[in-house]
Inverse folding.
């Protein structure tokens, strides 16, 4: 009788706890605030709307037709890059004849424009784009990649998304302002590297040195990076604009093992191939730490949780309960796994010269993309710990640190958010950029670096970047021009933006 009473008491308590948890989950799901501020949308009927007329379209198409391909730092089509310089100069006569705009050349091919504002007390900002493109395999395209064919509502061509649309978008916007007699109030720069696709080590690096040698810092930097993702983020009911607030670092390590060579007829214990293989298998089977809930993805969820489908909203608004489950789910898919940890990719393995000789050395190359909560040194240390074998030597072939995480409560972030919303009317959220851009050279110039290009893309269109049939919707190119126009205008009157953002944000 007594045991029965105790059991029923335990059962009742468990049910009570479960009930409390369910109520807490429901309350949190329905009361989690909307972190999105709203702004007036940019309309075609606005007196300052910039239409994509034939002249502007032709400027852009000609830019696409100039094949500014870079395959390595020494192997760029430099003639084409100079041709693009000329085309920029011819397309924007007001920019090039204004006495408050300075055009500066770096490493012969990289351009920096300095637009001096009328109010020198406002801190300057910088817009970043680049002149070069990656190669295109013409045989795999529907159209010639450098024809700038206009078809089915798109402009096709290498560089239409990466990233001549931002280059010409910002220039058209500025030229338009000048034609209207608007001199910018706030000083800003426009940087256009010539070797972004192959490291930025000559172009962007020289631009960075220019600023640091003069002691100039920037209030914020807007570079290419993430996009307006249409149907890409699972659980979202609407497209969402993602601003990259950090980018991953990279480290390429070479692991090697050396043993005394010998004849295959008398193998003595372990071979270099055996030792190294074991080490590589350990690296592959022991992924680095899962940082879900500690990195930029947490902020992303805070900003979009209200725009998710109900099942996603229940899960994401209750990380206190479902966090470990979601962390595991993120780790299962390569694209979400890349967001939450430093990834490990075994990319090369070489050993042996002859079938009957025990190879004295074996070498393997591992490429890591480093999460912003780790450093190159951390990754090296962890790899050594996983391998736990002193016979495996490691050499750093190349490496750069992940970027710092830029804040979402800065003026620069708010200006970008506002401009994106005005053009696209979609939720905006911070995120981790898993690729890299020229902005890695600018981390000392500003703590507010945001990686976003105003491209509205579904997953098929996204594949065109560095892939085949890269194309931009004609309408999206028009949006790009107007986005930069709004960005420039908003940057000049950002003082009262803060209150619009203060209302909604809450930590998950
Ligand atoms: Zn690019």
């Amino acid at each position: 009788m007594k045991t029965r009473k105790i059991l029923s008491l335990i059962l009742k308590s468990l049910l009570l706890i479960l009930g409390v948890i369910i109520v807490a989950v429901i309350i949190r799901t329905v009361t989690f605030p909307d972190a999105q501020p709203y702004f007036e949308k940019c309309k075609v009927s606005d007196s300052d709307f910039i239409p994509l007329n034939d002249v502007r379209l032709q400027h852009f198409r000609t830019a696409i037709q100039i094949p500014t391909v870079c395959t390595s730092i020494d192997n760029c089509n430099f003639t084409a890059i100079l041709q693009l310089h000329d085309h920029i100069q011819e397309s924007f006569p007001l920019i090039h004849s204004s006495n408050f705009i300075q055009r500066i050349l770096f490493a012969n091919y990289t351009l920096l424009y300095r637009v001096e504002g009328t109010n020198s007390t406002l801190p300057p900002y910088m817009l970043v784009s680049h002149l070069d493109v990656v190669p295109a395999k013409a045989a795999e395209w529907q159209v010639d990649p450098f024809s700038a064919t206009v078809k089915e509502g798109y402009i096709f061509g290498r560089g239409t998304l990466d990233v001549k649309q931002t280059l010409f978008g910002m220039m058209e916007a500025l030229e338009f302002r000048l034609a209207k007699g608007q001199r910018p109030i706030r000083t800003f720069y426009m940087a256009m590297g010539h070797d972004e696709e192959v490291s930025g080590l000559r172009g962007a690096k020289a631009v960075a040195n220019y600023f640091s040698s003069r002691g100039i810092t920037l209030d914020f930097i807007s570079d290419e990076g993430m996009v307006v993702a249409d149907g890409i983020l699972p659980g979202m009911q609407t497209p969402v604009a993602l601003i990259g607030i950090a980018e991953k670092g990279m480290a390429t390590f070479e692991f090697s093992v050396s043993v005394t060579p010998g004849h295959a007829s008398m193998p003595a214990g372990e071979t270099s191939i055996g030792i190294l293989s074991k080490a590589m298998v350990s690296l592959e089977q022991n992924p680095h730490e899962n940082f879900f809930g500690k990195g930029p993805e947490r902020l992303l969820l805070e900003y979009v949780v209200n725009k998710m489908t109900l099942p996603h909203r229940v899960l994401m608004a209750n990380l206190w309960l479902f966090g470990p489950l979601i962390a595991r789910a993120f780790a299962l898919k390569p694209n979400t796994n890349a967001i939450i940890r430093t990834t490990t990719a075994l990319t090369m393995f070489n050993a042996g010269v002859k079938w009957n000789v025990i190879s004295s050395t074996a070498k393997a190359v591992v490429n890591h993309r480093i999460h912003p909560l780790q450093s190159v040194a951390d990754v090296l240390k962890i790899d050594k710990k996983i391998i736990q074998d002193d016979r495996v030597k490691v050499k750093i072939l190349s490496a750069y640190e992940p970027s710092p995480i830029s804040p979402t409560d800065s003026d620069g972030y708010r200006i970008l958010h506002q401009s994106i919303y005005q053009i696209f009317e979609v939720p905006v959220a911070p995120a981790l950029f898993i690729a890299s851009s020229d902005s890695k050279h600018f981390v000392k110039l500003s703590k507010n670096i945001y990686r976003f290009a105003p491209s509205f893309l579904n997953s098929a269109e996204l594949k065109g970047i560095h892939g085949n049939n890269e194309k931009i919707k004609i309408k999206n190119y028009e949006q790009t021009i107007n986005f930069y126009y709004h960005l420039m205008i908003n940057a000049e009157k950002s003082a009262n933006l803060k209150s619009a953002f203060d209302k909604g944000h809450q930590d998950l």
Remarks:
- The pocket of zinc ion is lined by residues 130, 162-163, 196, 224 (CB under 6 Å).
- Residues 58 and 300 are 38 Å apart (CA to CA).
- Residues 290-340 form one domain.
